[in-house]
Amino acid sequence: MATAFGKFSVVTLLLILAAAGPARAGSTGPGFVESPLQRGVFCRESEAGGRLALGAPRARALSPGVRFLPGFSNPGAVFLAGGTLYVACNGASLVTEVDVATPGQEAITGTIATPVNPVDLAVVAGTLYVIDQQRSKLYYRPLAGGTWAYVQLPAAAPRWSYGNVIYPHETLGKMLVLHFWENRIHVVDLATKQLDTTITNLHHLPDRVHFTAAGDRMIVLCVGLDAPSCAAAGPHWEVFDLANGYQKLLEVAVSGECPQTMAEHGGDLFVVRDGGVLSFDLPSGAPVAALGGLSLGRQAEHNGAMLFVQDLAGGVAVIDPALTAVGASYGLLSNPQGWYPPLEEMAAAAAADGRIFVANRNDGCLSIIDWPACFSYGAGCAGSGGFVPLLSGGGCPAAGQNASFGLSGGLGGAPAFLFLGTSTAFLPLAGDCTFLLAPLQPPAAVIPLSGAGPGAGAFALDIPVPAATPPGSKAALQVFVADPGVPQGYAASNALHVTTQ
Q: Tell me, what CATH number does 468's domain have?
């Protein structure tokens, strides 16, 4: 049964869909061959010859959702700044500039020669910074050109660090340099180009740094690889106050498995380990959820909707932030190697864009994952009888067609409140429920559910999309069902992200 919206709700949805975004295009064509090391990554035959020696390449169609960009030499670290992706190429002492402003039209636009093989890089205020495996000099040069200079740092053990060495804080005008094996973080003042201070009150082996959205807190992941061991009390994550002399505010132990990397979004911290992911409430340090039984690697990104994590079984796993399950998996690696990881770093565009950029050392290519334009995300919460409402959609609507949605699993006969937003969010509510949309605003419609009793409530909804709606227009939807049978008084569905074709 189709349920009609009121005039206000239709107008609201159409206004939200009016925020147009560019359509996405694929990249394929004749003369390309698939990498024998990496499924779904294709290079030109002329470029693949002589470099990929693990079997004869064979031509076939690109894997759905994965595109490629060839032309890199040993790509490793990546840094996304506006519409440009900077890729550190360790095989040729280069930084490669990639125009990524328009999805589907990514292109290499130039290279910058570097004085050392860049293990990591960053761009701040028109200046490019690189550092090598020695980590004793932080090199810098204007993007527009000029001579390289450097900030002298204390000597460090020249052991491989897998990138993730320098972290800029543009607002404070600081650059953090991790000296992993020395258990310290050097803070460089970007205005004076001098060493400002050194953070030494770390637990053991700082491996990753993340700044909160407000910019006043710094999270450090200490992996504890040497002593004490990961099985004991080695791994920790720590929070520091950036406005108060890097004072340590919180320290949380993560024992049992070596943590590999972390990501943060909306007050939730995700710690990726070899066998799964843990989530914590960032302000308190309290554990929230866990997802195990996985085989994961060293890279993770949160794009505002989903958690993307390197999967050693073959590429990138997409995980619901509620850590309920792996929602999708993109096969990128057919022959992962533990000490020479083909998948180096990832960069995530905003959730509304959907692209994930993956540097792949073994193939000389940049993989581009196009996260689907229309997808379900987040987890609902149960109402009476333990039933969790499920919101589903009919795919990506086109201009001039209907956008179809349906709800099942609600309390029969109860009112359902449909909320609309322009982007994703994860706002914790009572009863383990989560508000999954932004901005926060009143419901766009109230819809009575059919059926009677727990789990029997449902509705079907068709909304016509005007013919003038631009392709790439986006909206997000979630439903709350009034339910007096549970303490919080309501149940909630998952959310849907919708993009017009």
A: 2.20.130.20
